[in-house]
Specification:
- The chain has two domains: about 35 residues; about 55 residues.
- The protein contains three helices and no strands.
């Protein structure tokens, strides 16, 4: 049997996951808007932008005392997922 404390923590994690889903929905809507501005598939991957995003996340992670390896891995994964999404959705 799972103890009460663990159950309580897992409930909080589930709640946070629901917030993440809402944020992902909002981010996806914004990515859709960005995608509408792109005329060519080769505009989907912007290496300078990716480098800037990752540097920004690293800096903010350090300031907020969050493990940089965790945030870097999460953002790289998210960026990869959205790049794949943009290629799937690209219509022009």
């Amino acid at each position: 049997m799972i103890n009460k404390k663990l159950e309580s923590i897992r409930k909080k994690l589930d709640n946070l996951d629901n917030h993440f889903l809402s944020l992902i929905k909002k981010r996806t809507l914004l990515v859709n808007q960005v995608l509408l501005t792109k005329k060519f598939k080769n505009q989907i991957v912007d290496k300078k932008r990716i480098k800037k995003i990752l540097a920004n996340i690293k800096s903010k992670s350090i300031k907020k005392n969050i493990d940089v390896k965790i945030t870097n891995e999460i953002w790289k994964s998210m960026i990869r997922a959205y790049i794949k999404y943009e290629f799937r959705k690209f219509k022009k």
